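Worked problem 6 (solution included).
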Amino acid sequence: MRAIIKDEVYLTMREEITAANLEGKTPTEMAAYYFEKGYSPEEVKEIMQKRKIIFPTIADVMNEFMGKKGMSVETISDMSDINPSTIYRIMSKSRNPSRNAVIRIASALALNIQETQVLLKSGNCSLLSASRDRDLIIMEGIAQERDYESINEALKEKSMPDLNIRV
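Solution. The predicted structure is:
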């Protein structure tokens, strides 16, 4: 059950107490926390706005995860089969990434589903949804920590567009 608190942000009392523990966390970690709790992208955005937290850009999110995992653009490029210059352009905001490219980058970074959702949101891409068969296959691959080529194989087996196609 959600309760309205004075600034009109919808949180349960327990989650509000937990939210207080998010101080010192990065915006990416905060967004991942709320996605993990089942909040929709619109609710996460509202919470972040009410708390005057700027939602991270894709460059912010990628840099954070790359730093935590000790990965370079070149490593991500090799693992995602995306040209390094394309990744640099995505990170410099001179190129809008496709949803598939973001999923491939998330796979290279070995992100979990919640972290992948944050990366997709920061790249202005639609989030993975359990209501879409293709997304369920992708989510299963992420949950099982498969690389993007394995996820592609699973998509091809079901006659679905793979992650190499720009959508």
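Discussion: The CA atoms of residues 76 and 109 lie 7 Å apart.
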